[in-house]
């Protein structure tokens, strides 16, 4: 029986060095897993795709040793900022079942496996969290054994942000369907540079303009800087907002550092 899984390719500010263990090179979050003798390519053309154009953002918040009773792998749990991933996982799961594919029946746990045994558990537990992440693509993988995988099919998302060259020290193109999402994705862009900022995120009232977004980010900078040194001074008011592909807002965020 061949082994396949549908998973999200994950991007994060990964540590430069990992503790001892068999590191998983292809960082992914599995949505569903199945075994089959034959696989029809026709399924990929009919499979429901995610309705969200932008790669969802999330936070690695908890270390996991799996399975709990006799750990053979180390992972980080993901808390997604929105329910979109959970909804799509359920939709995809039901669709593949209706197509007669026998799926793994274990309860879905949003996580990324980072390494497999042998592991130095004490060393892995010291890796700093929380850490921001986002999904950059949806892939159908074939498992080849020994923690190696082959990508058979891909659906790519618009990234929530992209760092760009600018006369300022730091600048990004940030994407969102509305100003609220623009704020969150801007915060994630900055958190990739300084994860400390994640400690200060909190629910906000509705944001209706780019000026609201800038004020909210600068207020967060001030709050975070009171408790520790940040490499940022402020978000400037010079960046422009316009409509990009998929009718998304695209903002050139410029940071005074």
Considering the chains and any ligands shown, give keywords for the structure:
Cyclic Phosphodiesterase, Chain: A, 2 domains, 5 helices, alpha+beta, 257 residues, single chain, eight-stranded antiparallel sheet, Archease, Possible Chaperone, Chain: A, domain 1, five-stranded antiparallel sheet
Described by the principal axes of the CA atoms, the overall outline is globular
Radius of gyration: 20 Å
- What is the number of helical segments per DSSP (H or I, 4+ residues)? 5
Q: How do the SSEs run, as a string of H and E?
A: EEEHEEHEHEEEEHHEEE
The description of the largest β-sheet is: 8 strands, antiparallel
CATH superfamily of the largest domain: Cyclic phosphodiesterase
**Mean pLDDT across every amino acid position:** 90
Strand content: 35-45%
User: Could you say which structural class the secondary elements and strand pairing correspond to?
Assistant: alpha+beta
**CATH architecture label name of the largest domain:** Alpha-Beta Complex
Question: What is CATH's topology name of the largest domain?
Answer: Cyclic Phosphodiesterase, Chain: A
**Distance between the first and last residues' Cα:** 55 Å
Mind telling me the CATH class of the largest domain?
Alpha Beta
Poorly predicted segments: none
Q: What's the number of extended β-strand segments?
A: 13
Count of the domains: 2
Tell me roughly what share of residues is in helical segments.
10-25%
């Amino acid at each position: 029986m061949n082994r396949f899984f549908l998973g999200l390719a994950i991007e994060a500010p990964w540590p430069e060095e990992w503790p001892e263990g068999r590191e998983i090179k292809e960082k992914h979050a599995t949505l569903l897993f199945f075994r089959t003798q034959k696989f029809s390519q026709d399924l990929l053309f009919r499979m429901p795709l995610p309705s969200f154009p932008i790669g969802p953002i999330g936070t690695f918040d908890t270390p996991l040793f799996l399975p709990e009773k006799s750990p053979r792998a180390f992972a980080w749990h993901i808390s997604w900022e929105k329910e979109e991933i959970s909804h799509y996982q359920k939709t995809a799961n039901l669709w593949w079942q209706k197509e007669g594919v026998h799926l793994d029946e274990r309860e879905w746990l949003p996580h990324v496996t980072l390494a497999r045994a042998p592991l130095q558990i004490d060393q892995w537990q010291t890796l700093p969290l929380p850490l921001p992440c986002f999904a950059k693509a949806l892939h159908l993988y074939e498992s080849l054994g020994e923690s190696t995988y082959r990508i058979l099919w891909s659906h790519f998302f618009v990234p929530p942000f992209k760092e760009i060259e600018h006369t300022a020290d730091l600048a990004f193109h940030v994407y969102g369907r509305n100003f609220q999402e623009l704020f969150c994705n801007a915060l994630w862009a900055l958190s990739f540079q300084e994860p400390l900022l994640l400690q200060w995120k909190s629910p906000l009232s509705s944001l209706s303009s780019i000026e609201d977004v800038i004020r909210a980010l600068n207020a967060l900078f001030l709050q975070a800087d009171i408790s520790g040194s940040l490499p940022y001074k402020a978000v400037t008011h010079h960046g422009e907002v316009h409509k990009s592909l998929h009718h998304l807002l695209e903002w050139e965020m410029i940071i005074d550092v």
